[in-house]
Known about the structure:
By secondary structure, the chain is α/β, with parallel strands linked by helices. The protein has helices at 42-45, 73-86, 100-111, 132-140, 145-148, 158-165, 212-221, 237-240, 242-254, and strands at 3-6, 9-14, 26-31, 52-57, 93-98, 116-122, 199-204, 225-230. Strands 1-2-4-3-5-6-7-8 form an eight-stranded mixed sheet, sandwiched between helices. α2 (73-86) packs across α3. The protein is globular and about 45 Å long.
Amino acid sequence: xxxxxxxxxxxxxxxxxxxxxxxxxxxxxxxxxxxxxxxxxxxxxxxxxxxxxxxxxxxxxxxxxxxxxxxxxxxxxxxxxxxxxxxxxxxxxxxxxxxxxxxxxxxxxxxxxxxxxxxxxxxxxxxxxxxxxxxxxxxxxxxxxxxxxxxxxxxxxxxxxxxxxxxxxxxxxxxxxxxxxxxxxxxxxxxxxxxxxxxxxxxxxxxxxxxxxxxxxxxxxxxxxxxxxxxxxxxxxxxxxxxxxxxxxxxxxxxxxxxxxx
Length: 262
């Protein structure tokens, strides 16, 4: 897990296949949701075709990246732009974001449209309201993992759930924080009507955190969006059904159906 200095942060990221090569057909940046980390992406990254170079990053205040959660989405978008510069990525990327990472992706596409070739948004919406219990846990550091475990589809194994649940304890807010990235004041529903970037929206059929209905609304709000529902998946569909999600991503990013993993 390499560490790189970006502004005032020591940033942890995952790049299993190494940096882009002449054979790379798609360059992908993966951004986790609130309380997550780059580790959430590892099951899906292992399923992706070798022609896709995937980079997953820990946001500030999450995982093994230093600092505390930034105060606004625009700060996070600026951080991601600086991160890409720091690792010498100049070409447009395919941005992949789950939950809050998807909302960040919408802001990133609005702030840096020239840097985004395609958008993949998972279990997200143009406006996200954090549950009061999540905010209480984030500020106190006392997480009710049993309740958080209800975010998954039925019959998901405990070891799969734990890959997600074990990351919440690493979330760090500043002492004077009164919001999580300022999202309580954010609604991008009107702004994203101008986003022309080809977009894939993935919903989890059993998602109780962000309803699949919100994914449908997001698809209507964006002029160039395609909606796909992943069955037998909850809020963390990329962890619960990594192979299915990887196939959808490959078809969208590469323009071909690659079938089962080779």
